[in-house]
Amino acid sequence: MRIGLLLLVATVFLPLLLKSLNHVPSPSFSLEGVAQLADASAEQSSISYREQFASSGATREVHSAVMVRLANGNMRAFWYGGKREGAKDVSVYTAELDLLTNEWREERVLVERLEMAQQLGVYLRKIGNPVAFRDSEERVWLFFVTVSVGGWAGSTINFITSEDDGQNWSEPTRMVTSPILNLSTLVKGEPFLYTDGSIGLPVYHEMIGKFGELLHLSSAGEVLDKVRLMSGRDGLQPIVLPSDEDSARIYMRNATDLPDSTLFETWTNDAGKSWAPVVRSDLPNPNAAVTGLRLDDGGMLLVLNNQHDKRNNLSLVFSENEGKSWQLLHELEQEENTPEFEHQFAYPAVRQSVDGDFHVLYTWNKERIKHVRFNAQWLQERLETLK
Amino acid sequence: MMMWADVGTFAASLLWVALLVKLIRAWLPRKGQAVLLVVAIVSGMVPFNGQVIGAYIFSLSSYLSVSTILLLLGFLFFSVAGNRFETFKAYWSPDQQWLVVVVFFVLSGLLLYPMAGGLTMLDPYRLGYTGTPWSVLLFGYLFSWAVLCVLKRWYLLLALILASMLAYYLKLLPSLNLWDYFIDLLVVVYSLFALLKYGLCRFFCRQPSN
Q1: A5 near B CB under 8 A
Q2: Where are the domains of chain B?
Q3: Looking at beta carbons, which residues of chain A come within 8 Å of B158?
Q4: Residue A255's domain spans which residues?
Q5: Does A324 touch chain B if contact means CB atoms closer than 8 Å?
Q6: Distance CA B194, CA B210 (A)
Q7: How does pLDDT run across A57-68, given as a tens digit for each residue?
């Protein structure tokens, strides 16, 4: 009987052994998200820099805006809004930007707590950060955080997809990303594509430890791999900036609240098979989210709070040497705090539209989502001033 | 993807029914236990604020592992079947068989959860994604246990491991991570308490208890 059982065990385990030994090669980074600077600026003649609000002020608070380029050329934004962060009435809102008129169409609720709870078959206490991107088949993906119990440390990631530029959406899928009751995985950094069509999703863990991670998802949204970027209690909300098919840099929010806190930084030169030990960059960070774009000349453009504490400044900074040095390009916001009021310019997102313009969205004093649009010529001119 | 939610809610409902049966059955005569089981199942189907109890538990527990589902089903089966399957039950769950299962879950939990929670840069949960670097280590761990189970005649644990492996191949849960099929936090916490109780009884009781 024992021989028979041993044979049974061998038979059951053989496929697992073969699968374990057959290492799936890491896909290369797609460069689809790299912003085109040279071509776009050549086509444009005049400098353009415009500001407006993307949200209407329909909710008392708004936060965590992101944006995606649609197949029709327009841009679609997502953010969450409600009475306050974490309140039960918080929903994810969406609005479309008409690229030609530069006007935002009326916002609408996309993810509503009770409806989502019904569809997911769970109890939901609150809804949090959304992130969006467009895959190689022109599907728009929206990943968003939900919490059933406790604070943000109890978060789970879900996603919905749309095949018609965000008019209609799929049923939600609840992702399994953690062995600890599937809790404490959150999103903020924008997803990116690999050359094989699979998806990279920067995430972070916030229960006891605070650290960034990178999920590798199939084109169907299943988690294929999870890479830890750091351990400890210090780093959140990674963003990934690929420079070529094998190389990328990651920047992470510094959660330490120390007076001299700076963004964390790591990089890979083997398509993410290994990441360098995380180091502190030279960029200040007041425990706030950062976003960025890789430019086609190899430079990096970051949008961040350019000081060690408080969020009353939001700036564009540029590096042409892989982060060895950074230069201030422009202050999007700079306001003095008073004892009565503390300004909050936070959670930026940046994307390039098909016409070559750059769009920055950010939380403006938690009241509105602000939209800053500038063209490549404006950016080129700012870059010229640095030389 | 309502199907996956249904799987999760079903498993969580099993946990609810098993908890009710475990808590109340000592006070009921044998005949009353079948009624209790029916009441427990029905109570799991009644919606509160639009969700059944299983959905609330699923919100907290997430997907239970295949091992836990099988143990819950076994517990409920023997609760209803009463004395009719005592010989069968005695074969599958004498003290030593049960103790090995508990030790397996505690050891596996100690290997997985502290480091998966961020204690180190190493994340053993990643080993569960087969085909990723070092995932062969998890194969080695489980295979060693399975062979040991055959040699030592620990058939209950062997059955749990093999069933979890088959469920993994058939992708009966939404996760592609092998850990999620044979272990979850609830069964590890339960096993920790069971092992603690066993250890205390070794010191303070005349007869070891399971």
Answers
A1: yes
A2: 1-86, 93-210
A3: 5, 9
A4: 27-386
A5: no
A6: 7
A7: 999 999 999 999
